[in-house]
């Protein structure tokens, strides 16, 4: 499994790095839309849609909604997204039964797809379009999610003892979480100091934004895992060898990207 994960990442990671730096924002948006549409198709199976017509209609409506929301100012879209993720966290903490809560209902899961996928598509594009190092910042968001996931995996695998959500994701441990946060902190400090040349006060804010985004990445993983548990499936799909479906690969990104972009937009004048 690990070998397949590494091989798949070895193909996708260079593709995304190249696309981030050499494609225009509109073309990058088209590329990311392919992944988002694939993820939306997988989400339809997790929210109770079974017929091809119903699943196609859901994906089409979500795509059109994404294009419309992309025309709006990015800040309110990110605010709405982060507010939704905070509500999702509340449900995870409040309800002992993972099938309880609004977001566990059929309608709640169908509505959730819009909050999960659309802001995650808009967030990197909003950053990428900026002239002051947009592509670099877009890549940083992607890398921080990869680093958080990798750090959590390699620390949690041998040393993970304290489970943080055993009913939803038995593999998630406090030790893995701390390992991922540690790796992300090192990434943030190194990039903030040597790439963006931030002063100490700005570097502290930059570190805070990055760590919060990494915490949201864990939330994204748990929310998708909850949806899979409710649907009774192990993976959202099988398109990516070693990773399952597209949604399995981008679940952390769907929460981390809006959280990071919101923090960056609010604190950018101080950076």
Brief overview:
It contains 9 helices and no strands. The protein has 271 residues and is mainly alpha-helical.
Write the layout of secondary structure elements.
Elements: H1 2-22, H2 25-46, H3 52-70, H4 74-94, H5 106-128, H6 134-159, H7 174-194, H8 200-231, H9 246-267
Helix pairs in contact: 1-6, 2-3, 2-5, 2-9, 3-5, 4-5, 4-8, 4-9, 5-6, 5-9, 6-7, 6-8, 6-9, 7-8, 8-9
Tell me about this structure.
The protein has one domain (2-270). It is mostly helical. The protein has 9 helices and no strands. The mean pLDDT is 91. The N and C termini lie far apart (41 Å).
Which structural class do the helices and strands define? mainly alpha
Assembly type of the shown chains? single chain
Give the strand tally.
Answer: 0
- Label the overall shape: globular
Q: Summarize model confidence as the mean pLDDT.
A: 91
Task: List the defining traits of the structure above.
mainly alpha; single chain
